[in-house]
């Protein structure tokens, strides 16, 4: 008798060719993004689910894994995996996979874009033209990137790519990381500094640490207070890494010059959010990896990870190796 096919829950829109690949091997149960998995899988079927493929909005904690004891692989369509309790998964022998590397360039590009938008005041310039004010007043002068110091909090793959791009803008790059990046130091790409020095010396601080217990709200009033009043803050990592209330206060009181954020503490935020009331912050709806090419590469990797894991082979990107 043929072995029964494994069942997977898919909580994202997968392109037709990849869906076909999945359907060739597994039975698929669709879960709308942000939906409740228990609404699409009746209690009697939960033990028969073998894999989960989802976005950051699929929260996978120990209680979920206990309700779905047959799950062997959780494949995240993201490099971050703060939506998954990895320790709980490891204890239950569940493989957790993510999509590293394929999005590094897109995230680094958006980081530079945000830096440019904030420092060159591009959103205000756009509003100025659209508001018919071109001939009716002067747009305040903005800030050069060249000659300024960029401080990277975190120096992983994305941090390094941001550093390389910033060098092309003639910026001086410093970073703070637990470990020194010997290649960056010896090539002259960036210099390691103490944490406090990073905030004090930088004209723009860009955050590139993953969210963990250790990094939650690791940039708060103390760190913002170390920054120059002329400095900018950019965050394309995770919103919860910042103390958002403190940031709003620093921006409102103009204790720092501005910020540019792709990520917020709670997403999505509404138009009534305090950040949306400020004119010295540029906001994006968590789209740093959101290009056609990058999202396709992430999707390929997430699907490949799931297939390999459920076949009993090693996924290409395994978090709990
Ligand atoms: C990631 O991959 O972690 C991004 O934040 C999601 O686009």
From TrEMBL:
Domain D-isomer specific 2-hydroxyacid dehydrogenase catalytic as annotated: residue spans: 14-320
Gene3D superfamilies: NAD(P)-binding Rossmann-like Domain
EC annotation from Swiss-Prot or TrEMBL: 1.1.1.79
Enzyme class: oxidoreductase
Pfam families found in the cross-reference section: 2-Hacid_dh, 2-Hacid_dh_C
Family: Belongs to the D-isomer specific 2-hydroxyacid dehydrogenase family.
Entry superkingdom: Bacteria
Gene it is expressed from: ghrB_4
Provenance organism: Pigmentiphaga humi
Taxonomic classification: Bacteria, Pseudomonadati, Pseudomonadota, Betaproteobacteria, Burkholderiales
Keyword entries, A-Z: NAD, Oxidoreductase, Pyruvate
GO molecular function, a single term: NAD binding
Claim: Transport is one of the keywords in the record: no
Record GO cellular component, one term: cytosol
PROSITE patterns linked: D_2_HYDROXYACID_DH_3
Protein name per the record: Glyoxylate/hydroxypyruvate reductase B
Residue ranges of coiled coil: none
Domain D-isomer specific 2-hydroxyacid dehydrogenase NAD-binding: 112-288
């Amino acid at each position: 008798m043929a072995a029964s096919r494994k069942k997977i829950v898919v909580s994202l829109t997968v392109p037709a060719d990849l869906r076909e690949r999945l359907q060739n091997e597994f039975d698929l149960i669709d879960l709308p993004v942000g939906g409740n998995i228990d609404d699409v899988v009746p209690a009697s079927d939960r033990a028969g689910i073998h894999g989960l493929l989802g976005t950051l909005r699929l929260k996978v904690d120990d209680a979920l894994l206990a309700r779905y004891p047959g799950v062997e692989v959780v494949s995240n369509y993201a490099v971050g995996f703060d939506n998954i309790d990895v320790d709980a998964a490891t204890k239950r022998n569940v493989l957790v996979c993510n999509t590293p590397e394929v999005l590094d360039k897109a995230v680094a590009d958006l980081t530079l874009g945000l830096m440019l938008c904030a420092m060159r005041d591009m959103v205000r310039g756009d509003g100025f033209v659209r508001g018919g004010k071109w001939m009716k007043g002067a747009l305040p002068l903005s800030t050069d990137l060249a000659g300024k110091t960029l401080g990277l909090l975190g120096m992983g793959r994305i941090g390094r790519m941001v550093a390389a791009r910033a060098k092309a803008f003639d910026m001086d790059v410093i970073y703070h990381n637990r470990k020194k990046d010997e290649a960056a130091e010896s090539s002259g790409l960036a210099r390691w500094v103490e944490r406090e020095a990073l905030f004090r010396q930088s004209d723009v601080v860009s955050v590139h640490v993953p969210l963990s217990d250790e990094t939650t709200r690791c940039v708060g009033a103390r760190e913002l207070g170390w920054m120059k009043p002329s400095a900018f803050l950019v965050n394309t990592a995770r919103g919860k890494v910042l103390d958002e209330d403190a940031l709003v206060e620093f921006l409102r009181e103009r204790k720092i010059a501005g910020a540019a954020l792709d990520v917020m503490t709670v997403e999505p935020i509404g138009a009534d959010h305090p950040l949306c009331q400020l004119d010295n912050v540029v906001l994006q709806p968590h789209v740093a990896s959101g290009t056609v090419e990058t999202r396709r590469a992430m999707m390929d990797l997430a699907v490949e990870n799931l297939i390999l894991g459920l076949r009993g082979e090693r996924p290409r990107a395994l978090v709990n190796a």
